[in-house]
Amino acid sequence: MIDFGLDLAGDAERNGPDGPTYSLRGASLVAAAGALVEAMPVWIVVYALGEAFVGRSSALRLDLLTFGLVVLLAATYALKVAGAIGTFGATYALACRLRLRLAEHLRRLPMGFWTARHRGQIGNVLTTQFDQYTEIFTHVWSMVVVNVVYPLALGAGLFALDPWVALATLLPVLPAMFAISWTLRVLNAASDELAAEVGETTDRIIEYVEGIATFRAFGRAGDANDVLRDRLDRLEATSMKTELVAAPAIMTYSMVVYGGFVLGAFAAAWRVESGGLAAPAAVLALLVAALFVRAQASLVLYLAESRFAARTLARVRELFGEPEQASGTLTPPIEAPVLEVRDVSFAHAADESEEPAPTLRRIGARFAPGTVTALVGPSGSGKSTFAHLLLRLWDVDAGVIRLGGFDVRDLSLAHLHRHVAMVFQEVVLFETSVLDNLRLARPEASREEVEAAARRARIHDVIAALPEGYDTVLGPGGAGLSGGERQRLSIARALLRDAPILVLDEATASLDPASEAAVQAAVGELMAGRTVVVIAHRLWTIKHADAILVFDQGRIVERGTHEALVQAGGTYARLWEAQQTARGWSLSA
Amino acid sequence: MTSVWSEVLRPERARLFGAVVLAIAASLLELAPQALVYVAACAVFADVGPWAGAGLGALGGWALVVLGLTLLRFLLMGGSLVLSHLASFRMAKHLRIRMARSLAEADMRFFAHHSSGDLKKALLDDAASIGGIVEHQLPDLASAIFVPLISLGVLFTVDWRLGLASLALLPLGVVLMALVMRNMGPEFEAWHATEKRAAAAILEFLTGIVVLKSFDRDVASLGDLRDAVNGVRDHAVRITRRTILGYTGFFVLFASNLVVVLPVALFFFREGMVPLETAVLFVALGTGLTAPLLKLLFLFGTLQMNALRIQRVEDVLNAPRARDVCGEAALPEGGTLELRDASFRYEEEGPLALDGVDLTLAPGEIVAVVGPSGAGKSTLARALVGGWPLSRGSLRYGGVALDALAPDARTKLLAYVGQETFLVRGTVRENVAFGRPDAPDDEVRAALEAAGARELVDAMPEGLETELGTGARGLSGGERQRLAIARAALHDAPVLVLDEATAHLDPESERAVQEGLSRLMRGRSTLVIAHRLRTVEGADRIVVLDGGRVVAEGRHEALLESCPTYRTLHEAQEKTARWTLGAPAVPAPAREAAR
Ligand SMILES: Nc1ncnc2c1ncn2[C@@H]1O[C@H](COP(=O)(O)OP(=O)(O)O)[C@@H](O)[C@H]1O
Ligand SMILES: Nc1ncnc2c1ncn2[C@@H]1O[C@H](COP(=O)(O)OP(=O)(O)O)[C@@H](O)[C@H]1O
Ligand SMILES: [Mg+2]
To answer: Considering the domain B2-169+256-322 in this protein, what is its CATH number?
Structure first.
């Protein structure tokens, strides 16, 4: 009925390499035992009041009775403490392990999995929802166990008193279970509808916040934003609707359970009338029945809460179900790092609705050692996708890419990436020290090697001037560094990586001339002696490339040197011409 | 500030009161079974009272009454739920509307300290959660307090000594809890801080996943991520171990008054101090009597969590406003835009990003602003656009202070096109007619024509009615830029501010955008910020900015002669423009050097 993810838990969850281990199953058993012991005082009540009811109270050993109750209380306490330590420990360890495992799994997925929207959702699963999940799991799971076992123990006591009254009281348990599953279904359906509405509203709110300058500039902010207003009205209405739809379902369980007490009372009346049950015993039975329904009624509350955990789990399972990108196994020495692309086609997996239009069609190219090849073409023509294929961030649909004669799919990914490295247009920096950020490219690099790379990337002086030099921890996303500095850090990384083949996505963001000159010098250093494939946006920078591949709508439509292509008067010549005009453009018009 | 809350709460007062009263009534009816047990006990054992000696003959009838009361309880509960939810959802909506309003007038510097993620949280999640306080917590709180209180009242009326007995364990539980929670504050704070760190590390990991893939770095090698996630676990386990004895003790004691009540009740009965039915009543009602009080504990936890949320919402509601007064003045016809002695800083104590800048922009004039990076060019554009209040100086148009303009006149004055274009999710038409949703189709088309985007839109499957999707992701930068220009064209403002509008476009887009801009500039005053001097060589006037000050002003040739800053910029540009790939600036040292 509800997924608690028990199967994801190991037999024993370890708390760190030398921390204690906890078993969720064991802890649940202990918690159940605790609930059982917690119910035992009620049996003492039944016994003691039973004696009193038939006039034998003077024979009761109140001292023993009190002692028994205190012992049970102590035992309950001890078992609950043990159970809680076990469940909490196991759950936190489980959540921690699951989170890291999931992160690693995500890293192994092909790049096609990562769209911007996806990233946001997954980030949410791994952070907020996971916290919620642990919270709910630690507090709710043991309560569910307790709220099943405790009423059961009371039910057993009731049976001992009178089977008929017990049957009547317990009769609604079955329909009550159905009521629970119905409740959960209704709630899920309702929350699906609500989730859709919340999703829409979220999009609108984010749009409003991110575009606030534009909304304000055009007088559409605040009360003038009728789209947002409208959305908020609808959210209010949908929230109310889903609440109303679910309310009867939520109340039904409790209704049915309390119905059990009424039935039990009828049964008691009938039993007393027919002489099967003495009046004092009937009072006792009613007392236990009242305690029973009260205990049972709480169960649904905890189950309803665990719903949220179940949803997170469903998402986690779905993510674990995504197939990882298979790595090859070969790690042959690669004599001449020639990269060869043969007849390669590739389509981005389209969203369910659309047919996948191929992004690249029957591409062929050869990158000989030491050459510089430029990829040019209008935006959206497939240059970046092609570059990503060279690193096997995606896999080709047809054709083959070979490195030194080996199909890249047969090589281990690590081996491939030792030979082919990429400098991305968007620089990714982590919130850690400059040194660690650079060492990402080669963890075993010594400090001297890192500094040498930084010098060659023309960034050493900037780093040295930071408050703690190489040990300065960067702000989130490299905040505090200028665009040109970030680019040079990224180049320093590539220098450290020192792969013979380099794929370079030239940054388009504009830099002021001074930082641009520094970046250019760093790029020059980086390219020396390597095979370079560069995605170029400013055509004048690639005049001297050994070859230029011109992309258009997923095909290579032209190839050759700058001079030859300008002469040919095709796509490249047109782009060149456009850029020359754009460069020469001046305001006076 | 409190006034905002009372304004949001006041309209819901009646509903909330109703919800609370119904909730209390409903939870009292929950005790109907216990009442029946007592009545039955009286009927069997009592010597006095209404049911004395009645026997259980009427038990079936009493059961029917319990049934009726149970049905009534559900009606009351349902009513309470409906009322509280109505109030909650309305409150959340009104909070959101107020926040949206506040953001519409906030000083733009506010956004530097509040990420869009945080603001989204405040507007969506926090507002909902604060609504949730009245939705669940308030009725729950009321019944968690009133039901034990009323039960206790009944018990004390019947027998005060037994009443005391049923409370006997309470102080012990409270003392235990207090002992455990002493000094735990910093521990909890540290835990939450670690959780935050883990969340940040995970998001960072997701952002950098492609780079990590290309460097073959797995999760295990990301020390920070691993440490943070493990840290969450370790903190939580440590807190559990330190608090569990007291915490569990508290819970167990609160639910175990039977341990005291049963022996004492039996003792009293045996000594003839209370009748048997009273003993039954105390066992029936006294068991779990204080359990609802446990809910209070959870409630305080939630309220505490909400304190943070309330803080965030108040931050948004209290955001400093961009201008204190809202003027009434209409927009003068064809005036000169004048910035006098303008200074601006991003941080209260921070450096001046603009330092006594004077600038005039006559009707139809094209003025360019150039300068090294960080000179304050974008800041200057922001000062004109509005929302970034000057710390000193004045800004006038046709002699009228901009702050004195009516809000829509202020909006009409100026159009801005920057590097980044923001388009809303919606149709092409909605985007182009963003500032004038009622603009007729032919005007929209004319604006597209002017922006050089006519063909682009005609090629779309549904023309003007084509849906662009979030952020118009299907369009290239140049295409989006042209739609933004069309939007500015339809806005038809007399003053145009362009901030590096063509900086990162591919060559063909760049040309199309340039043509659009040229048409847009006709007949308007334009301030253009350019990183490429080439582009602005033909401007009527070039203003050279450095360190937030105007260092020179004039035409291209004159500045080359007279302004060293301008000359340096010019030379650096000439140099980078000649650079080509594959011709390293410095001969490369052997690759081994870096090994
Ligand atoms: N992750 C993705 N999912 C789906 N489509 C994509 C993705 N990335 C790029 N595309 C599409 O593939 C085409 C080629 O894009 P890209 O390789 O980025 O071109 P370029 O680098 O030449 O600008 C475009 O139509 C683009 O919309
Ligand atoms: N949002 C901001 N918050 C704080 N400081 C800023 C912000 N934007 C710019 N600055 C600072 O203000 C100064 C001027 O920046 P800016 O106007 O962007 O220069 P330009 O556009 O000429 O490159 C710089 O010192 C910059 O660091
Ligand atoms: Mg700028």
So the answer is: 1.20.1560.10
Answer yes or no: do A231 and A370 share one domain: no
Q: Which residues of B touch A70 (CB under 8 A)?
A: 259
Query: Between B70, B373, B539, which is nearest A515 by CB?
Result: B373
A285 and A365 inside one domain: no
Mutate to test the interface with B, among A284, A286, A301 (most CBs of B within 10 A): A286
The predicted pLDDT at position B450 comes to: 85
Ligand nearest to the CA of B388: 2
Full domain range(s) for residue A451: 339-583
* The domain boundary residue, chosen from A320, A353, A380: A320
Q: Is residue A369 part of a domain?
A: yes
pLDDT digits (tens, 9 = 90+) for A139-158: 777 788 888 888 888 899 89
| Nearest chain A CA: its distance from B516 CA (Å) | 12
* Closest listed residue to residue A497, CA positions, set A416, A392, A390: A416
Q: What is the tens place of the pLDDT at every residue in B289-339?
A: 777 777 777 777 777 778 888 888 999 999 999 876 678 888 998 889 999
Taking alpha carbons only, the member of A265, A453, A40, A214 closest to residue B591 is: A453
Residues A359 and A217 in one domain: no
| Alpha carbons B523 and B520: distance in angstroms, whole number | 8
B355 within ligand 2 shell (Cβ under 6 A): no
Quick one: tokens of B592?
């081994």
Q: Whose Cα sits closest to atom 6 in ligand 2?
A: B346
Q: How far apart are CA A553 and CA A382, in angstroms?
A: 7
Q: Which residues of A touch B539 (CB under 8 A)?
A: 587-588
* DSSP designation for A367: E
B contacts of A286 (beta carbons < 8 Å) = 33, 36-37, 40
pLDDT band for A568, please (50, 70, 90 cuts): very high
Q: Report DSSP letters for A448-460, one per residue.
A: HHHHHHHHHTT-H
Query: Any idea which architecture B337-578 has in CATH?
Result: 3-Layer(aba) Sandwich (3.40)
| Within a domain: A47 | yes
Which chain B residues have a beta carbon less than 8 Å from that of A19?
Answer: 234, 237
Residue A106 has pLDDT above 60, yes or no: yes
Residue B587 has pLDDT above 50, yes or no: no
More confident residue, A281 or A296: A281
What are the pLDDT digits (tens) for A301-317?
777 777 777 777 888 88
DSSP A152-202: HHHHHHHHHH-HHHHHHHHTTHHHHHHHHHHHHHHHHHHHHHHHHHHHHHH
Same fold, B2-169+256-322 and B337-578: no
Domain presence at residue A8: no
Q: Is residue A334 situated within a structural domain?
A: no
Instruction: Judge if A464 and A393 occupy the same domain.
Output: yes
| Token output for B452 | 């050089």
Residues B252 and B246: their CA atoms lie apart, in Å, by 10
- In Å, how far are A73, B405, B568 from A422, measured between CA atoms? 66, 53, 34
**Pairs across A and B, CB distance < 8 A:** 502
Q: What is the CATH number of the domain that holds A461?
A: 3.40.50.300
- Which residues have a beta carbon within 5 Å of ligand 3, which is an ion? B 378
Tell me the best of B115, B346, B420, B528 to mutate to test the pocket of ligand 2, counting ligand atoms within 8 Å of each CB and taking the most. Answer: B346
* A428 & A559 share domain: yes
Q: Distance (Å, rounded) from C-alpha B395 to C-alpha A494?
A: 49
In this structure, are A543 and A570 located in the same domain?
yes
* A2–chain B nearest CA distance, Å: 24
Q: Could you give the ipTM of this predicted complex?
A: 0.86
Task: Tell whether A348 and A306 lie within a shared domain.
Answer: no
Number of domains in chain A: 2
Q: Which of A128-142, A561-575, B46-60 is the most confident on average?
A: A561-575
- A105: CATH: 1.20.1560.10
